[in-house]
Design brief:
Radius of gyration: 17 Å
Number of helices: 5
CATH architecture: Clam
CATH class: Mainly Beta
Distance between the termini: 36 Å
Structural class: alpha+beta
Order of helices and strands: HHEEEEEEHHHEEEEEE
Number of domains: 1
CATH topology: outer membrane lipoprotein receptor (LolB), chain A
Strand content: 35-45%
Strand order of the largest sheet: 7-8-9-10-11-1-2-3-4-5-6-12
Largest sheet: 12 strands, mixed
Number of strands: 12
CATH superfamily: Lipoprotein localisation LolA/LolB/LppX
Length: about 230
């Protein structure tokens, strides 16, 4: 029971931040901030995104504490679906932003938490991905060079109360205007580091309204009041 609770807590922290970043062992020297980074250009013209992912989480000592897989759907502006697959000892998790509210379903706890989108997504990577706010007003973006065959952009929230300290977006080498998001590394406020590897990434693929909406399953506890 304790192990299930520990895993649920670890995943919840990462999912809420949509965690990412670099650990001290893989730090990169950053160049001067650039108002037109690869991330800016990647978001230019992006309306939807569909991808699968694998995610590993390490604690502050570098010990791996969790490993999961799942799917990500984005419908800009302001909507996304981040679903963590279940596995032995875990029922999985689901985070949905429907444009008004953000819903977090923890199947292990049989519990749903809901918050207004403005409050729940403030200064999180989720807000950045979904296009729910002005990119440069909420984050500083810095080109961070090339490593491991990827071009990196360092993202840091401007607000001290943000869920994460810093995040790296890694893009596979590709012709200009055709960058492919391959990896995210996130450092949260509790010292955890999550590395997210994306696969089968589809830009501007079809995302239905049903995929970015949510109704609490019958029998689950709901914490919070949704905005109508």
């Amino acid at each position: 029971m304790f192990e299930v609770a520990r895993r649920a807590m670890s995943r919840a922290l990462v999912v809420r931040a949509l965690a990412m970043m670099m650990a001290s062992g893989c730090a990169m020297a950053a160049v001067a901030p650039n108002s037109s980074t690869l991330l800016d250009r990647y978001f230019d013209g992006l309306t939807t995104l569909r991808a699968s992912f694998t995610q590993t989480v390490k604690d502050a000592r570098g010990k791996q504490v969790d490993s999961t897989s799942g799917t990500l759907l984005v419908s800009r502006p302001g909507k996304f679906r981040w679903e963590v697959n279940g596995k032995a000892g875990s029922g999985g998790q689901l985070l949905v932003a429907d444009g008004r509210n953000v819903w977090f379903l923890d199947k292990d706890l049989d519990q749903v938490t809901v918050k207004p989108a403005d409050a729940a997504l403030s200064s999180t990577p989720a807000m950045l991905l979904s296009g729910a706010a002005n990119l440069h007003e909420s984050f500083t973006l810095t080109s961070a060079g090339n490593r491991d065959g990827l071009d990196w952009v360092l993202v840091e929230p401007r607000r001290p109360e943000a869920d994460f300290r810093r995040a790296l977006f890694g893009f596979a080498n590709a012709p200009a205007g055709n960058q492919r998001l391959q990896r995210m590394i996130i450092d949260d406020r509790l010292g955890q580091t999550a590395t997210i590897e994306f696969a089968s990434v589809e830009r501007n693929a079809k995302v239905t309204p049903e995929e970015v909406s949510f109704t609490p399953p019958k029998g689950t506890d709901v914490i919070g009041t949704p905005v109508k």
